[in-house]
Design a protein that fits this description.
The structure is a single chain. Strand 2 and strand 3 form a beta hairpin. Helices cover 37% and strands 20% of the residues. The longest helix is centred in the first third of the chain and has 14 residues. It is α+β, with helices and mostly antiparallel strands and 150 residues long. This is Lrp/AsnC family transcriptional regulator. Keywords: DNA-binding, Transcription, Transcription regulation.
Length: 150
């Protein structure tokens, strides 16, 4: 059995249009009950299909004009869990991925300016024991970002 049925997919599509949409409005648009919408959204959140409903912050609008994608090479890959916990303590790191290839981890860093980025890299990240080196690519802008199509 598929995890999502046609009603779940329709509800998600409505939320993608406006995450603040009232359950009653979704129900009216889909011609289903408000209770059904509420139950299905709660179930999808509990199952982890929907990671929650939260605002999408536009970093540049609040003064964070720089971003980088940074690969991390570790001294020992077995230290990755400890290093990830240390990275979580740096609020400017917004994403962290396990990757294959030259790096063990790939992170996204959001900074106010180049000096702020330098401090994050040299004073915060380089100070984490077990990180051998970093290699950063500066982001020049996002062409698009979207959810997977349902």
């Amino acid at each position: 059995m598929d995890l999502l049925d046609e009603f779940d997919i329709s509800i998600i599509k409505e939320l993608e249009k406006d995450g603040r949409m009232a359950f009653s409005a979704i129900a009216a648009n889909l011609k289903i009950s408000n209770t059904m919408v509420h139950q299905r959204i709660n179930r999808m959140i509990e199952q982890g299909v929907i990671g929650g409903i939260k605002p999408i912050i536009q970093e540049k609008k609040i003064g964070y004009d720089w971003a980088s994608f940074t690969g991390l090479t570790l001294n020992k890959d077995s230290d990755s869990e400890r290093i990830i916990e240390a990275l979580k303590e740096i609020p400017e790191i917004t994403e962290c991925y396990y990757v294959t290839g030259s790096f063990t981890l790939y992170i996204k860093i959001i900074a106010k300016n180049h000096e702020h980025m330098r401090r994050i890299l040299y004073e915060k990240i380089d100070g984490i024991p077990g990180i051998d080196k970093t290699d950063s690519i500066v982001e020049l802008g996002c062409a698009f970002k979207r959810n997977i199509s349902l």
